[in-house]
Amino acid sequence: MARKKKTSEGGLRGDEWLPTYADTVTLLLTFFVLLYSMASVDVEKTKSIAQAFTSMMNGSEGNSLLEYNMYNGEVPLIGGETQDNIEGGEELTEQERMYKNVKEFVNNNNLSSIVDIIDDERGIVIQLRDNILFETSSSDLREDSKEVLNKINSLIASVENPILVEGHTDNRPINTSRFPSNWELSADRAVNVVRYFIEVKGQNPTRFSAAGYGEFHPVAPNDTYENMAKNRRVDILIVTTEKEEE
Known about the structure:
The structure is a single chain. This protein is an alpha+beta fold and 246 residues long. It has 2 domains: 1-80, no CATH class; 94-239, CATH 3.30.1330.60. The protein contains 8 helices and 5 strands. α1 (18-38) packs antiparallel against α2 (43-58). The longest helix has 21 residues, at 18-38. The termini are far apart. It comes from Clostridium sartagoforme AAU1. It holds the Pfam family MotB_plug.
């Protein structure tokens, strides 16, 4: 009777791991060939794949595989979600990115208690109550309002979008030598905010527009003092432009 081959401790021969290892290498090689076939030929990207594969086979540490992106080099192949992706893997639209950035800016600059952020079909609205900017029946900027406007100016300076400033009032009539109606009051308030950004803060005037809507665009019924206060406001609209899909 022939002698049986001696086995290593545990009763297994020392080479029984080879089939599993060979299968693993074959699967990995197939995986990378598939990736290569899907990607456009790029020497640098090919080198990255080769280096990652070599590192894995040698058992050395490295993150070159995680950093590789077969599409554009911006998103890692593994764990590649970014802050500009939403659930389902869809990229954020310009409007969604702007809303996110404005919201973060408002929170970081302690403005959340005095301004509201509105996601409007035209863009992102920074809404300020009139008593933050003006005295009653006046369109002259309050001195203490300029600190708020200075912070908003730094946000405006960080984007290139057009800016539309809109003045609104409640439905109580006004009739003075300066303001015969709420049209004049709301328009003059919007203009003075625009002039502050342009003349004091040095913003490009071609980006700005001003409009006065009087009492005709309320956000609440003018049936209580609280609701009327909501309607007396200045809206600073950061206009977003979405490209139409072909």
